[in-house]
Write a structure and sequence with these properties.
mainly beta; 3-stranded antiparallel sheet; 54% strand
């Protein structure tokens, strides 16, 4: 299972969350990190993607 990191960012009146997940490359087997900045409600969907 991929590790996950979530940080909350506040810019003006909007609350944003930065989520980072590790993804294993099927070609090489190496891990890469995928980052995204989104609304807090969308974090679970982002982390559950394969």
């Amino acid at each position: 299972m991929a590790k996950k990191s979530v940080a909350t960012l506040q810019t003006g009146s909007k609350r944003l969350t930065k989520a980072i997940r590790m993804v294993k490359s099927p070609k090489t087997g190496a891990y890469t990190f995928v980052e995204g900045i989104m609304a807090p409600e969308m974090v679970n969907d982002f982390l559950n993607k394969k």
